[in-house]
């Protein structure tokens, strides 16, 4: 083989993987990178999208949103909504997974419960929002039951009162999201070797000790992975909040997604909306990097 | 293998191409973007366009139709990129932004050139002196009264003033039976309740929320309106859940005998009848302040029409606008839409065949169309800002005066 042929062969070998990857790289570039870069570019322009000749604005739009108290309120509401949702998704998911994995429950009942518990996962965000709006409206079923058993004395405007609205939307989101944890943890529970529990029984361990020293450590990789994913997804929840409260009353349920939406489609301030979207992107990116690092460490 | 094209075939192909090209050159195709087609009976708008094409040989119309929100976004992007359709369906709330983008053509020169009779149109929306929109069809917002609830509450005379309305609302309210006098939807998701259910009180009395083209929310008309709404709320006459209530829920509550009165679009009459055929209701104009005897402003939403500044076929586009605004065509269109006409001479057929519409038509004819949000910059954002301040007031966090001051500050920043 001549030197020329050898170098040609080498080049072909070096290029081949990139050729195989090129269709996916092209799709990722067009569908993910291009929109992302465009939005970042918009955040540095005046009158982005709305004018054909936008001017460079520097960090003006970032300054404007950081000076806006509603942005900070939205950030706080987003964190509260996300943290509470993830904690309760995890707790409820764990309790239900343990229940469904338990031999003490009748198998028929267990199968019925399995179907019932997974139901919220089958509904779309719009249906969940409508269901909870109907249940929690002042003349709804929840108020009626709570008044009958004497827990509340008068009708509570769950979504319409600034005191209760954020808790109400968080509750609806908790209800909608726990099945992800339940299903993942149930799969994890079924993978824990029975020997561990038999050894613990021989050592005289109690149920809670088996939970703390065997079950939870064995499930820890799943708990951390799903929690991080849930955190990223919950932070971006939009339809549930938009349909139930629209970010109100006043600004009590305004989260970053509704704040950004209003800037874009109510104020037509697409530059500031882009800046706000970039902030959400950076927070999500930080969490994603943390997640990737964790996965690599495993 | 070789291909040989026979000269005769070549001639036929050339002739066909020439014919097609000539036809294409002769025809001007107008693009008309709107959200009306899905809201009208199937095929009816296309039929009107076919009639227009028949009356104007050489002009074809392509309808680009979608739901309201999609059309709004499509028009915003089209205006920015210079790809706006030749003729566009418009909401009054959009025109200021679109005009600022230089996207809408001034129809004044077109009207002058064609000697268009301006007296025949109900309104011409102008921004910076430019005629940018005609309301083609108007959906007015009177007060719907549940006559059975009114009779049960002993309300024999339907309210004509704010004080009478408050009294009637109090009488109709029985919270223990989930029954309230009035319903106020102030959801931030769709803040149009500010326009339809709050500012309508101001316009009904011939008052204004503006002064010299600037917001005047701290003025007596708006503060009085806020004080009045607060008094209705303090009296417990408003159905609960105000801050998240939407227009659809408002209508549902009225349909289900849960509220005695609501301000709503006339377009919902058929929907209300369909949902509850037994509901006995009447329509009245929005009550006014004590002692007001002048013409009443009637809040409305409209299907507007305008021409793209970037259109290469403005002459043909103007023909289409004129056609839709003409007496007979306008009457036909609004009859299909259950709306009131943009041409003052047009008489929709439903006003003679339906009692409720006939009553509403009387209200329409004795008053004037009033919607000061039309043509304002970022109108929806202004409503959202006012909505938040009204919610704070109703939650007891501030007085009507403070709400008006805070809203004024927010609005001024947008002007």
TrEMBL record, chain B:
The record's subcellular location field reads: Periplasm
Q: What is its main location?
A: periplasm
Q: Which UniProt keywords apply?
A: Periplasm, Signal
Q: Highest taxon of the source?
A: Bacteria
The residues forming the signal peptide are: 1-26
Read off the InterPro entries from this record: Bact_solute-bd_prot1, SBP
Q: Does the keyword Signal apply?
A: yes
Keyword Cell membrane (UniProt): no
Q: Give the family per the record.
A: Belongs to the bacterial solute-binding protein 1 family.
Name assigned to this protein:
Sugar ABC transporter substrate-binding protein
């Amino acid at each position: 083989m001549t030197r020329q042929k050898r170098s040609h062969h080498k080049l072909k070998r070096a290029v081949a993987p990139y050729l195989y990857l090129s269709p996916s790289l092209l799709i990722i570039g067009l569908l993910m990178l291009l929109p992302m870069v465009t939005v970042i570019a918009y955040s540095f322009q005046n009158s982005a999208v709305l004018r054909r000749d936008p001017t460079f604005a520097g960090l003006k739009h970032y300054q404007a949103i950081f000076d806006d108290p509603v942005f900070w309120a939205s950030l706080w509401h987003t964190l509260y909504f996300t943290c509470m949702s993830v904690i309760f998704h995890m707790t409820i998911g764990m309790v239900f997974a343990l229940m469904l994995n338990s031999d003490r429950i009748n198998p028929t009942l267990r199968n019925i419960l399995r179907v019932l518990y997974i139901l919220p996962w089958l509904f779309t965000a719009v249906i969940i929002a409508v269901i909870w709006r109907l249940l929690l409206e002042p003349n709804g079923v929840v108020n009626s039951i709570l008044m009958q058993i004497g827990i509340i004395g008068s009708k509570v405007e769950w979504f319409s009162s600034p005191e209760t609205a954020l808790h109400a939307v968080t509750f609806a989101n908790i209800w909608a999201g726990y099945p992800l944890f339940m299903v993942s943890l149930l799969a994890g529970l079924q993978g824990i070797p029975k020997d561990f529990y038999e050894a613990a029984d021989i050592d005289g361990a109690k149920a809670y000790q088996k939970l703390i020293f065997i079950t939870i450590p064995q499930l820890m990789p799943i708990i951390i992975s799903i929690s991080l994913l849930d955190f990223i997804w919950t932070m971006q929840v939009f339809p549930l909040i938009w349909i139930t409260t629209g970010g109100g009353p006043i600004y009590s349920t305004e989260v970053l997604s509704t704040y950004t939406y209003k800037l874009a489609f109510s104020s037509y301030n697409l530059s500031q909306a882009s800046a706000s979207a970039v902030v959400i992107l950076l927070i999500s990116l930080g969490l994603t990097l943390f997640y990737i690092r964790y996965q690599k460490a495993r | 293998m070789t291909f040989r094209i026979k000269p005769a075939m070549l001639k036929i192909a050339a002739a066909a191409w020439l014919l097609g090209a000539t036809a294409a050159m002769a025809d001007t195709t107008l693009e008309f973007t709107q959200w009306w087609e899905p809201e009208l009976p199937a095929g009816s708008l296309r039929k009107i366009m076919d009639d227009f094409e028949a009356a104007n040989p050489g002009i074809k119309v392509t309808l680009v139709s979608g739901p309201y929100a999609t059309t709004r976004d499509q028009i915003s992007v089209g205006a920015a990129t210079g790809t706006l359709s030749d003729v566009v369906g418009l909401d009054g709330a959009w025109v200021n932004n679109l005009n600022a983008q230089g996207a809408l053509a001034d129809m004044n020169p077109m009207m002058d050139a064609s000697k268009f009779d301006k007296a025949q149109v109900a309104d011409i929306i102008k921004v910076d002196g430019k005629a940018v929109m005609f309301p083609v069809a108007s959906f007015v917002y009177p007060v719907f009264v549940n006559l059975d609830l009114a009779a049960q509450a002993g309300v024999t005379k339907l309210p004509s003033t704010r004080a009478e309305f408050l009294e009637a609302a109090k009488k109709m309210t029985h919270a223990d039976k989930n029954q309230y006098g009035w319903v106020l939807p102030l959801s931030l998701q769709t803040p149009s309740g500010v326009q339809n259910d709050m500012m309508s009180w101001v316009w009904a009395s011939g008052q204004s929320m503006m002064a010299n083209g600037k917001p005047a929310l701290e003025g007596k008309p708006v503060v009085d309106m806020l004080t009045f709404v607060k008094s209705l709320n303090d009296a417990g006459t408003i159905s609960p859940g105000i801050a998240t209530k939407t227009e659809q829920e408002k209508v549902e509550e009225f349909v289900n005998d849960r509220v005695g009165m609501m301000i709503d679009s006339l377009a919902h009459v058929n929907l209300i009848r369909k949902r509850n055929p037994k509901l006995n209701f009447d329509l009245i104009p929005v009550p006014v302040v004590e002692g007001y005897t002048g013409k009443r402003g009637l809040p409305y939403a409209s299907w507007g029409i305008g021409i793209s500044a970037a259109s290469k076929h403005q002459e043909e586009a103007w023909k289409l606008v004129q056609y839709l605004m003409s007496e007979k065509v306008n009457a036909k269109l609004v009859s299909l839409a259950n709306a009131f006409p943009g041409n003052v001479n047009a008489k929709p057929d439903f006003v003679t065949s339906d009692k409720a519409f006939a009553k509403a038509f009387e209200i329409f004819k004795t008053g004037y169309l009033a919607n000061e949000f039309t043509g304002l910059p970022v109108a929806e954002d202004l409503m959202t800002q006012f909505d938040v301040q009204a919610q704070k007031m109703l939650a007891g966090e501030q007085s009507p005066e403070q709400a008006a001051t805070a809203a004024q500050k927010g609005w001024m920043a947008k002007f």
